[in-house]
Amino acid sequence: MWILLAVSALQVTVTLGVIPSFETPVVNVTVIEGATAVLPCSVHNLGKHQVAWTDQWATTLAYMDTRIIDDDRYSVDRPYGNSWNLHIKGVKYGDQGIYTCQMNTQPVKVQTAILNVVVPPRIVGTVGSKVVMVKEGQSVSLVCNVTGIPPPTVTWYKQSSTRDGPKESEFCPATSRIGFSGEMLKIHNVTRYCGGVYECVADNGVKPSFKRQIKVAVEFPPEIRLPTKRIGQVLGKETILDCEVTAYPQAVSIWHYKGRELSKTKKYQVEVYEHDDHAIVLSLRIKHLSKEDYGSYTCVASNSMGQTRAKMELYEHIVVTRPPPTTTTIVIRKTTLVHKPSSIKNKSQSNRKRPKVKLQDEDVIDPYARLQQYRPDNPVKKTDNTITLAGSSKSKGTNSAVSSKHFVNCQFVFSFVLSLGFVMFVS
Length: 427
Prior knowledge:
The protein is mainly beta. The chain folds into four domains: 2-11 and 20-119, Immunoglobulin-like, CATH 2.60.40.10; 125-221, Immunoglobulin-like (Sandwich), CATH 2.60.40; 226-316, Sandwich (Immunoglobulin-like), CATH 2.60.40.10; 347-426, no CATH class. It has five helices and 27 strands. The strands form six sheets. Strands 12, 15, 16, 18, 19, 21, 24 and 25 form an eight-stranded mixed beta sheet that branches. The longest helix has 17 residues, at 410-426. It is elongated, with a radius of gyration of 61 Å. The protein starts with a helix and ends with a helix.
């Protein structure tokens, strides 16, 4: 081939003195594996010279616009008159290297095109997701073997089961983004909270990145949580007993009462509800409560890892009714005594007919003598025209009438009214 180019070069006339040339001496082309590589070659003033493409092993691929190599992936494209671009379809990683575009000048002129082939990351091994079983307290290793050019990095993530999206876990060494780059992730002392879906993502800057999911299932014995340990209900009503069971694999859960298993009957209704990951609620409905229904009920849960139970007490709730409050009304009658004694105007008025009373030393006939029984500390004093109640003294006055202004003072009347009212209230 080069002999032909040399002979052709001798026949070229350079009367005009124009020398052919390339636009750029070196071109770098980077292509993703599987795509089509375009190696450019633009020549100015080619004249009667010829162009040929060779690879790094000096193999002639094309002459002018004709493919020479027996590989239909190669072709020469001429979008413009001075362009002699080499196309390689379905590029493989082995195609990368140095390619040259040459002209049969003296000396031979060459344009170099460097082909770089990058390979997207891939994870080798099992295709699709897989499940890794581990018992609580043990260690587990998750592996993602990857390939790619340039070598990819592997980042591990843990998917969150909450609707709010990924968040850090408080119970497991691994977080939502573990931040560990490498093909292997090892979790020590696994707890039930480490279970879930882990994802390894391989990335080397070449799109698309590759990912694989691995589910970690942690086996642990059942746990029971009761909303309350004691519940009360009125006789004749119905009640519901709830028992929340968390376990993996899922536990077999039943209610026991007085040594027998409770199943669905007219009296009892047993239902199971999904509560959360690996958690269920075992609900027992008891209808028409009687005296025999009160007592201790046991929730029992068991799986391949163990068994546990918890008790709930059902007691009779007695509603205490209180009598309505009573109102007592106390009526106090107030009696007012009004005494209006007449004053002595003259002797004729004082000598009106009235019962004559002979006062003796031992006799007490005046009403004030009775008052003296309630007022022993305040005896009535003797005056000229008053009847004294002290001892054997007698009246010296000629008139037995008693003047009110000398007989009653304000203090004595007030004391009398209070004393009389007290006696009436007590009686």
